From TrEMBL, chains A, B:
Gene3D superfamilies reported in the protein's UniProt record: 3.40.50.360
Full protein name: NAD(P)H-dependent oxidoreductase
Keyword Disulfide bond among record annotations: no
PANTHER family associated with the record: GLUTATHIONE-REGULATED POTASSIUM-EFFLUX SYSTEM ANCILLARY PROTEIN KEFG (PTHR47307)
Keywords in alphabetical order: Coiled coil, Oxidoreductase
Domain Flavodoxin-like fold: 1-161
InterPro entries on file: Flavodoxin_fold, Flavoprotein-like_sf, KefG/KefF
Coiled-coil annotated spans: 197-224
Superkingdom as given in the UniProt entry: Bacteria
TM helices/strands, residue ranges: none
SUPFAM superfamilies xref list: Flavoproteins (SSF52218)
Pfam families the record matches: Flavodoxin_2 (PF02525)
Length: 227, 227
């Protein structure tokens, strides 16, 4: 999976979120930080080479910052899409959006009134018009206030968003974690850490087997009951 | 009603729609054509002076062009809104959006998949967050292909959108047309044109009286029937 993360942030130097995501995502994708003016041909080349295109930005007035809109307005032209508008077919369009307000405010009856999905309709429209597969957006809510644990969970969710088939299945997540544990075990020289990682991997494997058994039983019950 | 029309069009010189709207709207509003870079203080002064703020733009990838987004990102700051976010209270936010595709495509199951209302959620969110009254958008669909009659209708709808209380009532539209006919009658020196305008005004007035009568009858019927 060749993933290209396009970052549209007008004040990248002040961002806490973006360096974190870049650090944890660097082995999983190519990162491209937008800076105007754009060389249209180079930008289009980058997009054609990618299989999964991720637009990553802070939500400014409920949409992409002007810098990213400029990139979309200038780069997504007839040349990029092709005469039949089919040059981006089979590519995927993902969104990583960071919020300054809590995610719970984004629903009817709350302060932001509409959901993130509703506010992102223009980008979903872009995916439809260019025949790209739309991925459910990954929302980063108030990164500055997140605990270390929350950030670790975000790191895993982000790495999986960059690399796993979407929409993601639980089984794929577990397989992904198992592979990660194996790699960490190989890379560490600390024997105690190695043992701990081995134990974690064994635990994960056992839990997955139990889950498989439960799923088998559930299937049997369903068949017996005639569902 | 002090109406400010802010035009965000990156290629104004090539636009057919914008000069038309400016020509027919010039007596009804102040027109402000955006050009970057912006002097933030001047822009904010313009907004504070207006009672009705109209954002006028061609739809680019289902949202405002980058130029207008830049204006929103830079000008709509804490200074404009005030510490209590109440400096724009009682102002109205209207949208005049022009489309390169037919309006019928903007619905579920059609090519553009979502309605204009859905695509404009970010601007509606802006109105809510700044406590401005949101006006139903005025859509200009494929101006280049419009007949003269369609353009004349558009001119009237546009002038009314700039000047009448919203949402507009039928009675207000008729009163507005009557005033327009009276003004035209005063301004022309052609006696035949004067007579024709007078006849039109008389016809309009008669129709309005008939409508009032019908409404009275309808009310009586309803009361008798106990609705």
């Amino acid at each position: 999976m060749k993933t290209l993360v396009v970052i549209g942030h007008p004040e990248l130097a002040d961002s806490e979120t973006q360096p974190f995501l870049k650090q944890v995502g660097k082995d999983w994708a190519t990162f491209h930080e937008l800076e105007a003016p754009f060389d249209i041909a180079t930008e289009q080349q980058l997009i054609w080479q990618a299989e999964r295109l991720i637009l990553q930005f802070p939500l400014y007035w409920y949409s992409v910052p002007a810098l990213m809109k400029q990139w979309l307005d200038e780069v997504f032209d007839e040349e990029l899409l092709g005469p039949q508008h089919d040059r981006l077919v089979k590519k995927e369009l993902g969104i990583v959006v960071s919020l300054g307000r809590p995610i719970r405010e984004f629903q009817s009856g709350q302060r932001q009134a509409f959901t993130i999905d509703e506010y992102l309709r223009p980008l979903q429209g872009l995916a439809l018009a260019t025949k790209m597969k739309w991925l459910s957006p990954l929302v980063v809510s108030q990164f500055a206030y997140q605990s270390d644990t929350a950030r670790q969970k975000l790191a895993v969710a982000y790495q999986q968003y960059l690399s796993l088939p979407q929409p993601v299945r639980f089984k794929d997540r577990v397989a992904w974690l198992t592979r990660q544990l194996a790699t960490m075990q190989t890379n560490t020289k600390d024997t105690i850490a190695q043992q701990e990682l081995q134990q974690l991997a064994a635990l994960l494997s056992m839990k997955q087997e139990q889950l498989d058994d439960l799923n088998d039983n559930l299937r049997l019950v369903r068949e017996t009951e005639g569902y």
